[in-house]
Design brief:
single chain; seven-stranded parallel sheet; two-stranded antiparallel sheet; 9 strands; about 10% strand; binds coproporphyrinogen III
């Protein structure tokens, strides 16, 4: 019997897929009533993340409704600081809160030896999800693991929460690059360990979320974004050469080109500001592309959604590409709009 092909893995391995694959960042989340129900049962966001049965259900929820070609592991980028020993809480409606790091002395609290034990429930979620994908006949859906890229994770570790400009982090990196480098090195090492265990548990591709790459330019982009990402890429290529890596340098503008050329990623995720004609011309001979529907168009639905999808298809048709959003699904998005997106993309010829 022929093995079922997974279109996402075809694109990431530079083979022609049988259809244009799609998945959506934050496809498992609050726009789904069945997510909100499990989230309420779990009590807190981290309880949900660290409960392998519930977390694998959440991972499966959008697949059962819409049949995406990629199932993104249900977890969060901030489980890495949590596992290292930095206190992380998610308060309802408020976003994450961490006990902010204020100086190099605080790094003593961060312990790389805790990563594998603390994150064991996540690895079990991966095993359970692979089993559910198999037993529920989603044979063409690939399971995608992820972590935050070191700069983005460090932003939360230093700031203690989300922030508009992440000024404390930028100041630390500028005023004391030696100590900031130590923090980046710890997060980079933790990410390599974490992704390796995700791969051992069964993820078939990984995505590195660099949500805050728009904060840096020039040498700083090179040092804090490209160099650590390259280290992770090199580590993964050494030990797991068959696992493709997607990098998502959100809001990086033209810096995406250096990112694509210098980090060893196989695919670049584009945000909604990216110029697709430019990306098709400059990037697509080097890396596969993923993106970049504006989440607000998915929220809007109707002709705006259809036109947004058509524009992406016109620009990237025939290139190796995965349809996704430019950022995560907005929580008010009607599920019917996601269904519409799935129907439209399913109708696209490769
Ligand atoms: O469906 C998926 O994409 C898989 C799971 C996933 C989550 N977060 C679940 C989540 C993934 C891949 C992430 C990545 C993530 N987490 C990023 C990178 C992508 C991006 O959004 O830029 C970042 C920066 C975080 C950190 C984070 N987690 C923040 C800032 C917040 C609060 C803001 C918000 O959207 O609520 C979260 C919470 C979070 N992570 C939720 C979910 C489903 C909502 C929590 C809830 O249910 O209350």
């Amino acid at each position: 019997m022929n093995e079922i092909r997974k279109p996402i893995l075809d694109v990431l391995n530079k083979r022609v897929p049988e259809r244009v694959p799609f998945w959506l960042m934050r496809q498992a989340g609050r726009y789904l009533p069945e997510y909100r129900e499990l989230r309420n049962q779990a009590g807190s966001f981290l309880n949900l993340v660290y409960d392998p049965e519930k977390a694998s259900e959440v991972t499966m929820q959008p697949i059962r409704r819409f049949g995406m070609d990629g199932a993104i592991l249900f977890s969060d980028i901030l489980v890495v600081p949590d596992a290292l020993g930095q206190k992380v809480v998610f308060e309802a409606g408020e976003g994450p809160k961490l006990e902010a790091l204020t100086s190099e002395a605080d790094f003593r609290e961060l312990d790389l030896d805790r990563i594998e034990r603390h994150l064991a429930p996540v690895f079990e979620t991966i095993q359970r999800t692979r089993e559910k994908l198999r037993s529920e006949n989603f044979g063409s859906t690939a399971l995608i693991g992820f972590c935050g890229s070191p700069w983005t994770v460090a932003c939360y570790m230093v700031e203690g929460s989300g922030s508009r400009d992440f000024a404390k982090t930028k100041n630390w990196a500028r005023e004391n690059p030696e100590s900031f480098q130590k923090l980046i090195n710890i997060v980079t090492a933790a990410s390599c360990l974490y992704l390796t265990q995700q791969i051992n548990a069964g993820v078939e591709a990984v995505q590195l979320f660099e949500s805050h790459s728009g904060l840096l330019e020039g040498e700083e982009f090179e040092r804090w974004i490209i160099a650590p990402t390259h280290k992770i890429g090199e580590y993964l290529k050494d030990f797991h050469a068959d696992i493709p890596v997607i990098g998502f340098p959100r809001l990086a503008g033209m810096n995406v080109l250096d990112y694509a050329l210098e980090t060893l990623v196989d695919c670049v995720g584009l945000d909604q500001n990216a110029d697709l004609a430019w990306a098709a011309k400059e990037l697509s001979s080097h890396v596969a592309l993923q993106g970049n529907l504006d989440p607000e168009l998915l929220l809007a639905g109707g002709p705006a959604l259809d036109a947004g999808l058509e524009k992406i298809y016109a620009a990237l048709k025939g290139k190796p590409f995965i349809l996704n959003l430019g950022h995560g699904v907005i929580k008010e998005t009607p599920v019917e709009h996601v269904q519409r997106l799935a129907n439209v993309v399913r109708g696209w010829a490769v």
